[in-house]
Queue: 4 jobs
Job 1
Amino acid sequence: MGRTRNTRLEGVIQGLGLSQRQLAARFRAVAAEHGATELQSVAQPYIARWIGGAPVEGRAPFILAETLSRGLGRLVTLADIGLAPDTEPEPQSAWSDDTLTTLVTLGGMDMDIDRRRLLATSVYSVAALALPQDQWFERAMDRARTRRPLSSYVVTAQDVEDVQEMAAIFSRRDQKRGGRAGRTALVAYLRTDVAEFLSGRFPSESIRRGMTSAAAELAYLAGWTAFDGREHPLAQHWLTIATKLAEEAGDAPLAGHVLRAMAHQAVDLGKPQQAVWLAEASLSSRRYAQACWRERSLLGVVHARGLAAAGERKAAIAALLRAEQDLGRAGEGDDEPNRVGFFAEASLAHETAAALRDLGDLQGAETQFNRSVRTRGAEYARTHSVTLGYLGAVQAQQGHLDIACATWSQALDAMTGVQSGRAKETVVQMRRALSPFRNRAGSHAADLDARARSMLSQA
């Protein structure tokens, strides 16, 4: 079967006005900047073959898109040059590929129903959890600082504030309604407005860092909401991009916050050792030392959860104690980012309970889940419903079925209007626990199971 000529790529190259030989030389220069030594042999015949429809493999599509973007002074996406991937991108490559090109490409796949389904149903990559060497992180800000702008737009301090405000809005919506609510709007905003800001000109280093950090917050939310929707491979891609952006902004605490989310995901997916590694990376000296007390506590408690899941009881208990001490040092006058405003006594109790549950201390877990339920604010409906679901489960495991049913009934009440894969999963687990009692007509358990079944059918 003959190849189909890539007319999109051909048209963009013609608009650039360079010969194929000149384009190949620029391509090699960009590849060298990214350390892509395997692409140093690219010459004019490669360009001709790519236009003719030959596959462009590995990192080459991203390098080519960046080369064309620089030459044209505007953002050129993989879709623009007919190279949008039909298969899931390798998460490992995201560390070395151009951040902006990766962001826009992933955003396009996320918003395309078929491609998003491909991403969401692919395999969560344990190999991709391996982080680059420390030198990569140390040089990230310098690489971003010297990146050439792709447009003439001059980014302002007001633009930075606008993006920060949008991040706060999307975060509040996630906490109240769950990760599936408003997620399409979040991703669309990221790949259009935010991508355009990132490709513009920065009049000062502080504005560059501020915009990059705000973009990292939004990419983190895109990842976290995908995680909450149980779309784990998709979440993994977004969280990797968020970590890169945070490091490029020189925002060490935010980078730690994102790595903490990756550790949380690994715990939930039964990868405790990987969770411990990621949590330890989030607690590295500069990420922990520059974070506020509330964020330090959050990093610490997820580290404890990883240790608990890995069976390291003594270390997990010590980490829980440190996390509680750190949270106790948080004060009203502290300069805290919006992303950690939710983390208070209720959140610490929830995570502590999850760690104790994984250690086999069901009674202790029940006490802490109850503490979380008592102290949780109404604006955090999603997490509140999940906590109630977990509380009912540990009550049932201890043989207290009637108490568990009452708790689960509260959980179903709290889930009204919440669009969360994690909340839905607690309902699935609830039905499994109730399965031996479904045939007892008129019983509380049977009625609750019927209600849970109805809720799942509407999800």
Note: The two ends are 44 Å apart (CA to CA).
Job 2
Amino acid sequence: MSDRTYLAEGPRTAIRPFTYTDADEFTARARESRALHRPWLFPPADPDAYAAYASVLIEDPARAGFLVCERNGAAGGATDGAIAGFININNIVMGGFRCGALGYGAFAHAAGRGLMSEGLGLVLGYAFGPLGLHRLEANIQPGNSGSIALVRGAGFRLEGLSPDFLFIDGAWRDHERWALTEEMR
């Protein structure tokens, strides 16, 4: 972990940007987590797909990708720096809007342990601090109770339903629109 710098740290997690060298760990975790992610999420599971995915998050100024990493002590110290999940801010628009759209996923070994909740809190601090955003949105399929619980726990409010919002797994899917503004924190 010494060659990677955390952007923010909490008691059990820390966040840092994606790097190209994370491909092996990220894709292994994605493959291990297929049952958890389906039918909601399809993270890259091979090195080529990861390189394409990470390059957008690393190089596109309208996106910011964060890896949620376990810190020493989260699981006896043996997992220090292990990737627990990821949180991306997509479609960042500045100016009078200052908004971005969240996308995220936990990996199976970290699911249900509160690591993503802590990691999301760190990302929110970074988004409303150094990134200078005013609003974040999360668009979630209505049946994805775990994802809804994550944003609800972070203080997001339900703003409505967007029918046929995203093309996922071969079909246009409805999504609930959840949002959080800087003033709501």
Note: The helical segments are 23-32, 34-37, 47-59, 115-128, 145-153.
Job 3
Amino acid sequence: MKHRSLETILRLGVKELWSLWRDPVMLVLIAFSFTVSVYTAATAVPETLHHVPIAIVDEDHSPLSRQIADAFYPPQFMAPAMIDHAQVDPGMDIGRYSFVLNIPPDFQRDVLAGRPAEVQINVDATRMSQAFTGNGNIQRIIQDEITDFMRGRGRAVSPPVDLVLRARFNPSLENAWFGGLMQIINQITMLSLILTGAALIREREHGTIEHLLVMPVTPAQIMLSKVWSMSLVVLVAAALSLNGVVRGLLHVPIDGSLPLFFAGATLHLFAMTAMGIWLATLARNMPQFGMLMILILLPMQMLSGGTTPRESMPQLAQDLMLAAPTTHFVELGQAILYRGAGFDVVWPSFLALLAIGSLMFYLSLRRFRTTIGSMA
């Protein structure tokens, strides 16, 4: 009896795979989500500076001002354009320069004399990501060059502590490394909802759900078939994307255990596919399902810790998001892929995903039985 039940679940799952294979829109969505979407999310809008245009108005013409100008070079900045005051506003109005640095007359003399010396930084704040990052970087570069200049003349005081920074996993702080992996995690969450929910709604719209009702199958078997088949599709697509796009195109090194990561992804898919079925039982058609998914998916992804660290969120939001599977999946994904953590570190996340998934599957099964009973 148990063997026959497993065979039924297997055959129903194969039916789901064939239905998906005959749906070109879903196939295009899967391919786009794990290729173009991952690549563009990692590279299209970088938070780091890359060939940013900068201009300098040098009214001092001193060794210090020339040393500061020489400190701006690729790949963060383009070679600085030396301009005068009349070119500042027109150049920024047409977007030719993102930053204009104005070094006033007698700047070096004031610095050497210990008098207050000011440098003006004009920022094109319409380029928001560059404006916030670049403003701080320019100030740091200027301060470093002044310190080196003063040290060369024996005027600088050595600090009592020499701070040396070392960045783990991402030594050059490339935003693409973080963005590519996080996009795969987000796509696993999104597609698990879409595929299972769309599979159930498609059967309802095509009338095949009525055929299942007259067959000797149980609601649990129908749900499990959708869970394993759609989870398999997402796992295969994620594995291909992780090796082809992230490792191949973006050249992101991954030192963590991929089998451990995909084991956690399987538990996450168990919870999310069950949630997708639950949403599909609430919606009458695909547009309604899409609206419900947006209401559920966007807050879960934004507050999971993938976009903003959870420590910077209000305590209430942190506590509430412990009930969301995305929080624990992002936590274990970052620990494994970024820091090479083992099971001894991420087992609490595995346990939380198992508990949330089991509860979500139970609630979805109850709702699914009620829905089928009303259709019978």
Note: The chain has a mean pLDDT of 84.
Job 4
Amino acid sequence: MAVTTRASGAPPLPAHPDAQLDAVLGSKLPHELSYALGGPFHLLMPDRFDTNSTAFKHELTEAGVQGQVYYAKKANKAAVWMDRCAVSGTGVDVASAGELRDALGHGVRGEDVVVTGPAKAEGLLRVAVLHGCLIAVDALDELERVIDQAQAAARPARVLLRRLPPAQPHSRFGLDDRELTSALARCAEAGDAVVMEGFSFHLSGYDTQARGELAAELIDLCLKARVLGLRADRISIGGGFAVDYTAAEHWERFLREQGPHDYHAGKSFTASDFYPYHSPAPGPAALRAILTTDGLAGRLREAGVMLLLEPGRALLDRAGCTVFRVQGVKDRPGYGIVTVDGSSLSLSEQWFNSEYLPDPVLLPAEATPGEPYAACVGGATCLESDMVTWRKVRFRARPAVGDLLVYPNTAGYQMDSNESPFHELPLPRKVVLDTAGGTTRWRFDRPPLA
């Protein structure tokens, strides 16, 4: 059979080297799990979550700033992250009654939970007040509902007032200047029903300078709120801590050279369609940059203001990967089409007119020599748009039925934001790799609490 491939394929975009993951992929475990589960699966590495959380807390300590890290639960639904937060004292950011119930059920204390999201349901507000959660109030009518819940429960509601970012005036999140003035007056009037602990904001993008400058404005708002007799001793700067997936030279080359010829069916992407897969200041380094913006750390200390942050993706950096089994391969002029045993619903980036770009790793079922082979990757559904990877990835050999494709670093937002049992395909199971005691053992992640 003649195999026709484009000699180079798309520009490569390898993930950063990861010795721990390589050791797992070099073992028999991935193939054994694929055989046992009969479908795609996710591998979770919770020790990485612990490492990332500790790194953020270290930056706060180094800057001499009091603070709290909250894991944004929407980034990944696995129960193991809740277990880790409960043990370590890492907070949890939730936005629904189900997320709050799951966090509390896994041992996270209510006082370590921040409740965000717009126009929160009454049931969510009731439980949040009863458990002493911190509630980010997004609108004036929501503040009234929080006060009603607090008065009915005869216990104070802990609140932050969410600020509409002046640089993003069309955002649907937050209170503008007029609304903030009304909200502060209402909190003062509410007396013991409300403990107004400070302010928060939702700021799109990864600009550390902009985040630091808006944080400074919130410190000023805290000082003004104290004049009204309000506590106002903390601010939340939300998320927006980028993950660095690949080296700068790979990312720059990819953006420079990629074009429609590199994708199945000539699909076209622009640089703005992609997540920034390289970041010069990712995760904890971004926090360090924010704290040094215009002396922010010093201002926080001087004003006696705590800094709260809500990273999701950054706490899951290198904490998991997604594994598919090859079900078929067909040749097309210049490249091949690989079909795997799952769908693009398991890589959520594909459903936002974008592409999850770190190169998948081919794990052959049998060690056989071969020539480099360029191929896109399709899902096992009847939809033309079900492409796990539109890009013509250059594999080291032609994939074969039974081989595995491993997508690295997918724990943050990729695994389960959009998963669906379309065509009655099973949802990928989550497999936790525990490394306590110097050995690696696996187990299934516990399902969410009912």
Note: Confidence is low (pLDDT under 50) at residues 1-7.
